[in-house]
């Protein structure tokens, strides 16, 4: 039976590849060939549900710096997000499931995205590198394995189902080779430009403080990674867990601990934490802070496990604490692209007692461990000047020459 199931699984993969992907590719190229492409048109395609990440910051750069000579348009997959972006950029925003959106897509030569490793992710569109320049800004420096480097994903999909990119942006030479291996792209097509969202970290403002006064205090952000394999992230996974005691400690420090989980987890966080129960442990989900980058600049200490958010946070030269409570399980399922222990510059804690001790030191001696953080910052960030978007435009110019 195992042999039959294995054969059937491979057959299904082949069928999906040949019947669907290959035929869709041929059809797409035929349709695309009927529409002349405008090399001066640059379209940013938002495929997620919130206005954030590299796509947002690249758009803001292009809108405020008009010396790039591109006609910038915005294509949006989600209807509510289309309405939101359309209020701010009414003359250039198009809904993907509309005739005007389809026309824009078909005449676009330079399409900028920041998500999606599966070709079906962009439905109703199919992104073909033979028809367009598909430029992926991506949405984070990878700590965890991605795409082809994840064994379960690699084995469950035919190779043609993986989305191909003309280029993808990286923050360092180190990351350049990691992304090339994950997305089966030539290393020269991985641009070491830096990422637009990190330009904001280096040139930020205090716009959130007016709405959230506690950001003027000491702020600890607790942001674990999303676990796709079925288990939810476990906040405070300590045998000696005592949240009242932790809350009392935070009061002595005049500090707030903000909890930010994945969308699917935030209802649980909202119900169990907050000012009425624990005055210093507050939710910080996407409905409160839609864009984590704008929140990060107010954070004094970052707490995480395997989230690549810490790699962005390195640019701020501030302390970090890691809670790798299920390291072996996570490693066996997803795996890392580099050694976790030697590339995470901060305390690794397994009890609340250790956690509070580390927080105490991080809040009151932030210089502790600074040299190791600087070493990691220089490894993961080749450019630290806040000019990533400029370099991306320069690379797009080269593509169009």
CATH architecture label name of the largest domain? 3-Layer(aba) Sandwich
Q: Write down the overall mean pLDDT.
A: 90
Domain unit count = 2
Reported by name, the CATH topology of the largest domain is Rossmann fold
CATH superfamily of the largest domain: CDP-glycerol glycerophosphotransferase, N-terminal domain
What is the CATH class designation of the largest domain?
Alpha Beta
Rg on CA atoms, Å: 22 Å
Share of helical residues: 25-40%
Strand content: 5-15%
Number of strands: 13
Our count of helices gives 15
End-to-end separation:
56 Å
Order of helices and strands: HEHEHEHEEHEHEHEHEHEHEHEHEHHH
The quaternary state of the protein chains shown equals single chain
Residue windows where pLDDT falls under 50 for at least 5 positions: none
* Overall SS class: alpha/beta
Q: Could you describe the largest sheet, including whether it forms a barrel?
A: 7 strands, parallel
Question: How would you concisely characterize the structure shown here?
Answer:
This protein is α/β, with parallel strands linked by helices. It has 15 helices and 13 strands. The chain folds into two domains: 215 residues, 3-Layer(aba) Sandwich (Rossmann fold), CATH 3.40.50.11820; 168 residues, CDP-glycerol glycerophosphotransferase, C-terminal domain (Rossmann fold), CATH 3.40.50.12580.
